[in-house]
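Two proteins follow. First one:
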Amino acid sequence: MVKITFNAFSFLRKRLKEQGIPYVEAPMEFPDGFTPKDIIDKFGFKDGEVEAVFINRKVKPMETELKNGDRIALLPPGTPGSYRLILGIKKMD
C-alpha cells in the first residue's frame, strides 16, 4: 500500500464532499502502482474535470506512480493564463 496526503481545489471539493471523501490534507492509502489517473477514475471525475495534478508541489503526468509520502493535489480547469505558465500546467510555445 502507498500512503499519500491528498488535496483538491475549487469545484472538485464540492464533488468530493458530496461523496463524503476528504479533500484537504487528507491521508489516504492506495494499492502499489496507483497513479493520479487511477484516483481521478476512482473518485468518478470525467475526462477534462481535472486539468493538472501536482505531486510534491510540481505538475506531473497523470500516469506517474505514487510513492509513500507523496503529496497529491488535483486542479480543475480555470486557472488564469499567466498562472498556468508559472505553475507548469502549460509550457511556453
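Second one, unrelated to the first:
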Amino acid sequence: MSRLAVFLAEGFEEIEALAAVDICRRCGIRVDMVSVSGAGSVRGSHDITVEADQRFEQTDFSEYDMLMLPGGGLGTKNLEAHQGLMEQIDAFYRDGKYIAAICAAPSILGHRGILKGRRACCYPGFESHLEGAEVTAGPVEISDHVITSRGMGTAIDFGLAIAGVLCGEEKKKEMAETIVYDRRKG
C-alpha cells in the first residue's frame, strides 16, 4: 500500500489539503496528516482547525512514497520556514521520490531549485517563484516525480493526479467516476 504525508502548518489552505487526503484515502492510500506546528491541532487559513494524525517529530519518512504541501499564503511561509521539512523535501527529490505542491506551495519547490527544467503551475501571482520552470496555466502538471497544481479550484484534479501516480490510472478514473467528477463541466 502506498503512503502519503500531507503537511499542515498554521494558515494552510483547508480544501487543498483535505480534498487530496479524502480522495487518496478513498483509493486505499495510507495518508498521514503531519503537523509541523508543534501541536496536534492546526488552524487553516479560514479558521478551520484540523487534528493532525501525527507531529513532524514522530514521523519516519522512510515509510512514505510521497510528500505533499498544501498552499495558503501563511501556510506556505510556515512550511518553508520548517527546516526539518525542507531537509525531507530535498532528500525525497534527491532520491527520485514524489513531491506534490499546490497553490502557493510550488514556490517552495522553485526556491529549492526543484522545478528547473520542469513544467509546473501555481496560484496566479506566484509564477516568478517557480525558478527555472516552464510555467503553465494547467490545473495540474506532473513532471517526472514532481506534481504541482494551481489552487482550491484544482484541488480535486490534484488529488486525482496523486491517486493516479500512487494507484494507477485505472483507479484514478474509477475514483473520478465514483465522486461524480467531470472536469469538462467544471
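SUMMARY FIELD: The radius of gyration is 15 Å. Residues 119 and 134 are 5 Å apart (CA to CA).
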